[in-house]
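Q: Convert this sequence to structure tokens.
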Amino acid sequence: MDEYDEAVLFTLSLLESRLSRLEYVLGNKPASDEKPKTVTERIHKLEKALADLSSKTSLLDDANQLLTKHHDLLPSTHPSPSTPPLTPSELTTTIIDRAPSFATTASQLKALEDQQLPGGRGRAFAAGA
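A:
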């Protein structure tokens, strides 16, 4: 397995994990415990789960309304007209080049999560207790 395949599988795993957390927090039961076998099946399962989640909660609608009202909160996803589009090989190189930073960032965030906050409240404070 090459670096590109590893990056794709790692990214899918992270997306599935985050979706699972969202479903748990919002009190939604996951559709099934069956693991899809191919990348395409995994992507379709993620899309279906997101569609199901958005139909059961107004959270996504609220987020879209906020983004519509305050469009300056997030940078534009549309490339500026002065920037020429990247070729597929340039895109692949960029993705492979930046993939390790995701694992590094995840590790750093996990280390921060494990740290105690001043006053001995620890995770209970961070979780909103």
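Confidence is low (pLDDT under 50) at residues 121-129.
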